[in-house]
């Protein structure tokens, strides 16, 4: 696997747009200030797999398609996206151990030592405790995040996606090894949008995150490169 454990917390800019030209423009302008770019469902579904290779000319790609299906189908999807050489990809931890094991095997078969890191999404950062309970999960986000984290890592995931609120909980329980990728990050004073469990970049980095996934605070800013540079400077300070 390509090692994507940074020495200090880095930024992944989420290129959330259906317009490939806009995504490429953002990637080019933001690249000096971030370590990776994220291709998510909106861009991938509109532009197709080729966009992954296109934006990878600027920065390595975090391919966030959050696979969740039967093991055979997820293994096939992982093999398919390995052809575009993403640095990291996501699946839902709730898909269970056989699905995660199948994804890991498929990545190894398709890409060998250059396989993408496999990250398990725990509980989406937009979920509140009440919304999680509505889905039948009692005990609150923290308990569910830790349950899915343990399951995913023992099934072969390299890391986890969690909200800023669970970073120190995971570090305390599971140590430094898992790659922790954290969306739901909001610089002080910026709009939360649909995110529920948020914190600032500095707080999230101090808690032990490896990567911060930041979308709208960068891309909705009239000057995205300056917004990314300001967040990078706040982390360096
Ligand atoms: O615009 P914003 O900073 O909220 O974007 C966060 C990005 O992280 C979005 O692309 C979203 O899909 C992604 N994400 C998330 N929560 C997760 C996993 C990924 O918000 N649990």
Ligands and ions found:
cytidine-5'-monophosphate
Low-confidence stretches: none
- The proportion of residues forming helix, as a percent range, comes to 40-55%
Helix/sheet category: alpha/beta
Rg on CA atoms, Å = 17 Å
Which percent band covers the strand fraction?
15-25%
- Write down how many β-strands occur, each being a DSSP E stretch of 2 or more residues: 8
Shape: globular
Main sheet makeup: 8 strands, parallel, barrel
Order of helices and strands: EHEHHEHEHEHHEHEHEHH
What key phrases describe this protein's structure?
237 residues; alpha/beta; eight-stranded parallel β-barrel; 11 helices; globular; binds cytidine-5'-monophosphate
Describe the overall structure:
The chain is 44% helix and 16% strand. The chain contains 11 helices and 8 strands. Helix 7 (140-154) packs across helix 8. The relative contact order is 0.16. The structure holds cytidine-5'-monophosphate. Cytidine-5'-monophosphate binds next to strand 2, strand 8 and helix 10.
Kindly summarize this structure in a few lines.
Helix content is 44%, strand content 16%. The chain has 237 residues and is of the alpha/beta class.
Question: What does the secondary structure layout of this molecule look like, with pairings?
Answer:
Elements: E1 10-14, H1 20-30, E2 36-40, H2 41-47, H3 50-55, E3 61-67, H4 71-82, E4 88-92, H5 97-111, E5 117-121, H6 129-134, H7 140-154, E6 159-161, H8 167-174, E7 179-182, H9 201-207, E8 211-214, H10 216-219, H11 224-236
Parallel strand pairs: 1-2, 1-8, 2-3, 3-4, 4-5, 5-6, 6-7, 7-8
The structure holds cytidine-5'-monophosphate.
Residues 14, 16, 38, 40, 64, 121, 124-125, 161, 183-184, 193, 195, 213-217 line the site of cytidine-5'-monophosphate (C5P).
